[in-house]
Specification:
With about 475 residues, the protein is an alpha/beta fold. The protein is built from 19 helices and 14 strands. The strands form five sheets. A six-stranded mixed β-sheet has the order 3-6-7-8-10-9, with helices on both faces. The chain has a two-stranded antiparallel ribbon with strand order 1-2.
Length: about 475
């Protein structure tokens, strides 16, 4: 038995007291299996050569993680096991893929042309009381086999006029979108989840390019809320939480951290990401689509959208805890307001969508806003999310007391007189909201108009008075912002 010193919880112990060679191999196999599960390594592709290349990349990532673990535990006395294990396992997996018919199990990206079918009036279509069509024949069997009968019924009931100008795809590749003839289709239905698309925005931008104005895109995604239930129900109690945590760490956290993102994309090509409903809907809106219908079916979020504009082509989306939001400043100039993240990524593109469905709650915030994270609610309750705005004060873009810096959508809800008056002044960190404590949007506008009129008469005295009144309401009356 190999003997060496190791480190565990700050105490020096001998490796002999922890592991023998057989247990070391067992640990290696366990780490290899967990890594393979997290990387979805055995989701085999059509092209054997590409599959083998992907296998080698993922095996290298897993091997590197095992080496780091063994290095930390000072177990490199077993380094020959690492080399042997990596070589043998990779070779065996490659042999199985190459010679034992795994390539026959591949699911090809499908181009499914729509069939002529008889019109059947159904309720709930995109346009009110229009005729939807019943998918029939071989096409129906293909769609039901791909996504299930319930999803098929949803598409039939909510996607109007399925005809020869409707294309059904089951693809994860932007290439399969771009190769479709221009001007041929006005509806695209993709039967693969957006989670499996490597570059989601580029994929959606390609669809936007192929669709005419007013054209429709239908698809689905498995959000992380439902993937959690799937994983916890699939594996035995205890280990299921370990697997879910590792899966979440790899597929949700890694893609959003700058220096870890490259590792994730090398290993997975950007596929299998864990996304929230707010993020995927925000991506759709940023790529020029508007949600016209949505429904959860068997743990998957289905949606039907309409092309309403060209994509935004956001080259620098924010994922980290510190974000910079575009807000209207003095003279109508757009400024970058610093805040701690309280919403899921891409949520800023959903303001109009949430407003149309939820309206405003007491205090001027959106009612039942699904974009806000659990941690975000805590930050908002104690204004922690607004602390970075002191950077804007130091830059001279904001002042301590003043009206809130608003997004274009919120700004559009104000009447013209207040818009003009707001634009003449810098926004502030502490708004008049905390002085008057208004409940409705109309009351908020009255409060801001009153403050601005007083400020124009006596700037310094108004801000001094409003500051101390706000402090009294915040610390004595416990006024809170949602």
């Amino acid at each position: 038995m190999f003997l060496a010193s190791g480190r565990l919880l700050g105490h020096n112990v001998t490796i002999a007291s922890l592991l023998d060679k057989h247990l070391a191999v067992g640990v290696y196999i366990l780490l290899w299996w967990l890594g393979s599960l997290i990387l979805v390594k055995w989701d085999i592709r059509k092209n054997v050569e590409n599959t083998l290349n992907a296998l080698l990349k993922k095996n290298l990532v897993i091997h590197a993680a095992v080496v780091i673990f063994y290095y930390y535990m000072e177990l490199l006395g077993y380094k020959w096991w690492l080399l042997l294990g990596f070589s043998v396992v990779t070779f065996l997996e490659a042999v199985i893929i190459r010679f034992f018919g795994f390539d026959k199990l591949l699911h090809q990206d499908a181009f499914i042309p729509a069939e002529p079918s008889t019109g059947i009036p159904l309720k709930g279509a995109i346009e009110n009381e229009v005729e939807a069509t019943q998918v029939s024949g071989a096409l129906r069997l293909l769609i039901a086999d791909e996504v299930g009968e319930n999803a098929l019924q949803y598409l039939q009931q909510n996607l109007s006029n399925i005809n020869e100008k409707t294309v059904f795809l089951a693809t994860e590749s932007r290439f399969n979108i771009l190769q479709q003839p221009d001007g041929t289709f006005d509806k695209i239905v993709n039967l693969k989840p957006l989670n499996k698309v490597g570059r989601i925005n580029k994929f959606l931008e390609a669809i936007n390019e192929k669709l005419p104005d007013g054209g429709h895109l239908a698809g689905f995604v498995e959000t992380y809320e439902y993937s959690k239930d799937r994983i916890l129900n699939r594996y035995p109690r205890g280990i299921n939480y370990v697997i879910h945590f590792a899966y979440l760490l790899w597929n949700r956290i890694f893609p959003k951290i700058y220096f870890l993102r490259a590792i994730y994309f090398v290993a997975t090509a950007g596929k299998y990401r864990e996304v929230s409903k707010a993020e995927i809907f925000g991506r759709l809106y940023s790529c020029g689509f508007s949600i016209v219908n949505e429904e959860v079916i068997e743990g998957k979020q289905y949606f039907i959208t309409k092309k309403v504009k060209e994509p935004v082509y956001d080259e620098h989306p924010t994922y980290g805890p510190l974000i910079r939001l575009r807000r209207k400043g003095e003279n109508g100039k757009m400024i970058g307001v610093y805040k701690l993240r309280t919403m899921y990524p891409y949520s800023e593109y959903l303001q109009e969508y949430v407003y149309q469905r939820n309206q405003l709650d007491e205090g001027g915030k959106f009612k039942d806003d699904f974009r806000v994270t659990g941690m975000g609610k805590f930050f908002r309750k104690f204004w922690l999310d607004e602390l970075p705005m002191f950077l804007n004060v130091l830059k001279g873009e904001m002042k301590i007391v003043g009206v809130r810096p608003l997004s274009n959508h919120y700004f559009s809800l104000y009447h013209k007189e207040l818009q003009e008056k707001r634009s003449r002044h810098k926004p502030g960190l502490i708004p008049p909201f905390y002085v008057d404590l208004p409940s409705t949007l109309e009351e908020i506008m009255e409060s801001e108009m009153r403050y601005l009129e007083e400020y124009e008469q006596s700037p310094w005295a108004t801000d001094w008075t409003y500051f101390w009144k706000a402090m009294h309401n915040i610390f004595i009356k416990k006024a809170r912002s949602k």
